[in-house]
Amino acid sequence: MMPQPTQTQRVLELARQRGMLRSRDLQAVGAPRVMLTRLMASGQLEKVGRGLYRLPQTLMSADESLAAIALKVPKAVFCLLTALQFHGLTTQAPRQVWLAMPRGSHAPRIDYPPIRMVQYSGQSYSQGIEVFERDQVLLRVYSVAKTVVDCFKHRSAIGLDVALEALREARAGQRASADELWRFAKICRVANVMRPYLEAIG
What is the pLDDT of residue 61? Predict the structure, then answer.
């Protein structure tokens, strides 16, 4: 008979499978949360944020901070400057991670990285979400077309020049069709704002 894995082995295997562990994930293997403290003290786990742990020397992608947020805030959709950077549509590195949440949501309690939350309702929140896997975590990110339109909607916060650059890049690289952009412009109620720019670039 094979010996049963110890609690330590079960927790470490779970960390291997998931990339990052939340304290509540320990319920899945029947281990108490105090195990996390012990495994950190022995150097077998390291803390990457409030309530988030991983194996030391884990190779993580550039999207590690997004993965950490996605684990903690499942309803979050990465948007605006963060989505632009994710899609490779801007040369700017945002100082904050931009999240979209359903209207009425409380701002998530996250120590790091700094976040900036916008609230959407109805289709403005639910439409255009794409799902990507990074570091074994599913990230919800608005599509290129939805992101470009959001930039026009929030042009006073991020700058019209950023919105225009995103629109040019998306069209030049054939990353978003005029029909897609127009559909989201109507959903997000910025069709009148975007009409002259869409007509100008054909």
Answer: 55
